[in-house]
Design a protein that fits this description.
By secondary structure, the protein is of the alpha/beta class. It has helices at residues 28-46, 56-59, 69-76, 120-134, 141-149, 156-169, 174-190, 195-210, 217-234, 239-251, 255-268, 273-285, 289-302, 308-320, 324-337, 342-354, 358-371, 377-382, 389-401, and strands at 15-18, 22-23, 52-53, 80-89, 92-101, 106-116. The longest helix has 19 residues, at 28-46. The termini are far apart. The model has no long low-confidence stretch (mean pLDDT 93).
């Protein structure tokens, strides 16, 4: 196969993207159902260490587009592509799935399944194992055990609600996060033992704090801690729950524990773009900017159409690693793309400060005050805090020089 058109070098391990499944029904619930099945298969595959799996968030960017599998493979730098369609009639579903070697241009395996709605969970397990077997991938015993525990609910409605909530949460705006919170709550009412729903609920509170949307950050963090411990109790091996607890430890100033938990999340889910990105984010505060750069680039490779905050982590790590010009070029773009986002503005201002361009730094600082008139340099530098107190002091000094008061 000609790999010269690939946007990225092809990984050595079997590499795959699971595209969003098409909904043959046309109604919103079947659509959510189709997305959720593809998401679950993708998530299950991503814990297999001997594979390279593109994140479902990136795969979702192809939803509704008529893109050939070869084009997808070249765009994402993978060899194999899974696609499928879902049709639902009353309590029955028909699922058509195919696994293609997109670079060689042939279908390795295709099948259709007619099942009762209640059998959808066992069907997902079956499909995941079928794909792994077709690609002749070795699965460790631990991975095999975790594959069967991935989902965490047998309540179909709760599972659908969590699938829908995740799509809202990923949009990272104040109203979308509030919608996600409501959906996670409803899922928990239906199944109080659903770990993924408790973790999702906790995430909504953490995001509120990090983006400055919480009226009472301490209350939000208490709720996040309570919900994430509940999630861990229900499923101790869920990778994103470890990431969540790691973020809470970082906010509490426990850098070593935070790095340990975030690293464990990556061990449990080596292909998880978000768990890699969260580890990078934590490393940038724990005094390891170089490793943070390596890790966030890994996350970006796993999810080429990544969330904005991935780039923000890279930009800050560049500044901390003594590469402020690289940082400026990232945050100038971010400022154009997300003019109402505070993080890129603050980082841009500080990066200008580092290179001594005070005029540009003060211009960015004026934009910060326009966005947040009560901006406090000390609050900004305190949550999360750096492990290295000297770095906190340097950030504070930069913000003050640019005209931002404590």
């Amino acid at each position: 196969a000609d790999v010269s058109l690939m946007r990225f070098p092809l990984p050595v391990k079997p590499s795959i993207a699971v595209l969003p499944f098409q909904s043959a029904g046309g109604d919103a619930e079947t659509d959510t159902f189709a997305d959720s099945i593809a998401e679950e298969i993708s998530s299950a595959l991503s814990i297999v260490s001997e594979m390279f799996v593109i994140s479902h968030a990136t795969a979702m960017t192809y939803k509704g587009r008529q893109t050939g599998v070869r084009e997808v493979a070249e765009d994402l730098g993978v060899r194999y592509v899974v696609k499928g369609s879902v049709q639902r009639v009353d309590d029955k579903i028909r699922l058509r799935v195919q696994l293609a070697d997109a670079l060689e241009g042939f279908v390795l395996w295709a099948d259709s399944f007619d099942r009762e709605l209640g059998d959808v969970f066992s069907l997902q397990d079956e499909l995941t194992l079928k794909i792994v077997t077709e690609l002749q991938v070795e699965i460790t015993d631990g991975e095999q055990d975790r594959l069967t525990l991935m989902r965490g609910t047998t309540d179909f409605q709760a599972w659908l609600l969590v699938g829908e909530a995740l799509r809202h949460l990923r949009r990272v705006t104040r109203t979308e996060v509030a919608k996600a919170r409501e959906l996670y709550r409803r899922a928990i009412q239906l199944d109080p033992g659903y770990s993924k729903a408790w973790a999702g609920l906790a995430w909504t509170h953490v995001v509120d704090v990090l983006f400055g949307w919480s009226r009472s950050p301490s209350t939000s963090l208490e709720k996040a801690a309570m919900h994430s411990l509940k999630a861990k109790e229900l499923d101790p091996e869920r990778p994103l729950t470890h990431s969540l607890l790691a973020m809470l430890e970082l906010i509490a100033g426990n850098h070593a524990t935070a790095v340990e938990l975030a690293s464990r999340a990556v061990e449990l889910n080596p292909n998880g773009a978000d768990v890699n990105a969260i580890l990078a984010w934590i490393l940038s505060y724990a005094g390891n900017a170089e490793e943070s750069i390596t890790r966030i680039k890994m996350a970006m490779r796993l999810s080429p159409y990544y969330a904005d905050w991935y780039r923000w982590v890279l930009g800050r790590s560049y500044r901390l690693a003594g590469r402020p010009h690289d940082s400026i070029s990232i945050f100038k773009v971010a400022r154009r793309e997300r003019p109402n986002a505070l993080v890129p503005l603050v980082e841009l201002a500080m990066s200008y400060g580092v290179i001594g361009n005070l005029a540009k730094g003060r211009e960015a600082a004026a934009d910060i005050l326009e966005l947040q008139p009560r901006f406090s340099a000390r609050v900004w530098a305190a949550v999360p805090a750096y492990k290295d107190k000297a770095q906190t002091e340097e950030d504070l000094m930069l913000l003050r020089v640019l005209g931002l008061s404590d």
